[in-house]
Specification:
It is globular, with a radius of gyration of 21 Å. It has 13 helices and eight strands. With 346 residues, it is mainly alpha-helical. The strands form three sheets. It has a three-stranded mixed sheet with strand order 1-2-8. A three-stranded antiparallel sheet has the order 6-3-7.
Length: 346
């Protein structure tokens, strides 16, 4: 959770009536955000610094190109990514997801100004792991993972971070367009809607970027990567639907239900191994052998379940991004359920 500067006074007032654990959470969030602001330097300054590696400079020049393209062609706000911050660690935050043992519905946390979200973010991995352990003691499925980028939704000028410069050019472009999309449209309290919109808009942006450069080989490689990723994502989402059916059944014992859950995940991993053998590695297949549970499945569902609806909506506007963005923004008047229904009918 990351709080706009102009809201810090209101937040501090709210903290006076919060529990000690809540105070500790927001204290670390403010401290972490201040670290980013303190360490960030303008991109131009970093590019002129002889001590900075050639690779970092190349990626910064690419990001400057992407920002200009996003403003000119994608109609996105671009006040972020004008500075660079080297945190000297692999992730900027560690995020906690949780779900009941026998449900794929995610636990949510409420935050000032942005409403309910399906995750809890910490700038220190130990804090995230402690939160994860606390939730596991409550009997929840938990997933704790490092995140290399995040957005303050346009409230602050988010810097470029060393944590995501390892990405390929295509993945870096997708990340930049994704985070800038959050600053364009964000509907408080609807994580699935916001992330799927940013995902669909960013992927379309990368395609547009490659076409604008006449880089058809780069575009084909990107489309092939997306296709492989979608195969694995489809498997994960089908497993989530299967688990919904599992959890809706009446079992004679908890042990029987746990066994049915175990079999669903085993079947998923078996199919993932078949995909790997058939098509080679993709962006998500490396995680197939790791531990999966309800909470981890939700990290995928949050970003991808509604993507086809947004893609159909964009297609209905014949690629007119401004009209697409206006219709998405107008959906803030609907309830989350109505937004999902609207996308399903597009």
């Amino acid at each position: 959770m990351f709080v706009p500067t102009r809201h810090w006074i209101a937040l501090l007032t709210a903290l006076l009536v919060c529990s000690c654990s809540t105070v500790s959470f927001y204290t670390q969030a403010v401290s972490g955000q201040m670290e980013l602001s303190r360490k960030a330097r303008p991109n131009a300054t970093v590019l002129a610094d002889a001590a900075v590696s050639a690779n970092v400079k190349r990626k910064l020049r690419l990001i400057e190109e992407l920002r200009a393209f996003a403003a000119r062609e994608l109609h996105l706000p671009t006040k972020s990514f004008g500075k660079f911050c080297d945190l000297k660690r692999p992730y900027v935050v560690w995020v906690v997801f949780a779900s009941p043992e026998f449900s794929v519905e995610a636990k949510t946390w409420w935050y000032p100004f942005v409403g309910s979200l399906k995750y809890r973010g910490f700038f220190d991995e130990n804090d995230a792991q402690r939160e994860g352990a606390r939730l596991r003691k409550q009997g929840l499925d938990v997933f704790v993972g490092g995140v290399d980028a995040y957005s303050t939704l346009g409230y602050l000028r988010d810097p470029v971070l060393n944590t995501f410069l390892h990405r390929s050019d295509a993945d870096l472009a997708e990340l930049v367009f994704h985070e800038l999309t959050h600053a364009k449209v964000f509907i408080p309290g609807d994580t699935d809607f916001n992330e799927a919109f940013a995902t669909a808009n960013a992927e379309n942006g990368v395609r547009h970027w490659y076409r604008s450069k006449g880089d058809l080989s780069g575009l084909r490689a990107y489309e092939a990567s997306l296709k492989k990723g979608r195969e694995v994502i489809g498997l994960l989402l089908r497993t989530r639907e299967k688990l919904k059916s599992v959890y809706s059944n009446t079992y004679r014992s908890i042990e029987t239900e746990r066994l049915a859950k175990h079999h669903a995940f085993e079947a998923m991993l078996h199919e993932a191994n078949q995909l790997r053998a058939k098509a080679g590695q993709s962006r998500l297949e490396h995680a197939a052998a790791q531990h999966w549970n309800n909470a981890r499945l939700n990290t995928v569902a949050t970003y991808y379940t509604l993507v086809p609806g947004f893609e159909r909506l964009l297609k209905s506007h014949n690629g007119d991004l401004e009209a697409f963005h206006r219709e998405v923004a107008a959906m803030r008047r609907l309830s989350p359920e109505k937004r999902t229904e609207a996308l399903a009918t597009k």
